[in-house]
Amino acid sequence: MRVLLFFDQTQAGAGGKERPNVELAVEKGGIGSYHMFEKFIKQEGGVVLATMYCGNGYFFDHEDEVKRKVAGLATKLKADIVLCGPCFDYPDYSRMSAILAQYIEENTETKAVAMFSKENTEVIEQYKDTVKIIKMPRKGGTGLNDSLENMSKVLKAVVDNEPKSTYESFLY
Q: What Pfam families is this protein classified in (predicted)?
């Protein structure tokens, strides 16, 4: 399973809320918060090809460019799936992840999912019918490891074209 990650600047380790204009960048392999779920991806036979990231301000100011470039890299690297998140309860990161996952699903052969917490109600309601959104706790919430393990199972199931019924309990 060939995975491409998409993070915001915080999850990539490129700054916090004070750096919303971090430009789109790519790093080979997994970086930043990837290390908290690396073992689960590997358990499912996954390899992270690269991590793309940008600040949420940059994303919303350059949305078309970011969508095109992430989709282009996914195609170029022959990624099986793009994971947008985990976003926890960060509303802007959740919104950009849902927008990006939907774009990838609609415009490439690559599959895509997003992952964020139930606190992002508005984004969930807007995208749950068009984007596979994996459940997770808010930042500091309980059950993070379980949700990250479930995330990896969903990635594998989606890549393997398993019926949605085998993993829908992990989605909103």
A: GRDB
- pLDDT tens digits for range 34-76: 999 999 999 999 999 999 999 999 999 999 999 999 999 999 9
**pLDDT tens digits for 101-111?**
999 999 999 99
Structure tokens at 19: 């750096």
Asked if omega into 163 is within 30° of 0 (cis), the reply is: no
Would you say domain 2-170 falls under CATH 3.40.50.1820?
no
In angstroms, the Cα distances linking 120 to 11, 82, 93, 128, 141 are: 17, 20, 10, 11, 14
Q: Which of 91, 80, 90, 71 shows the shortest CA–CA distance to 26?
A: 71
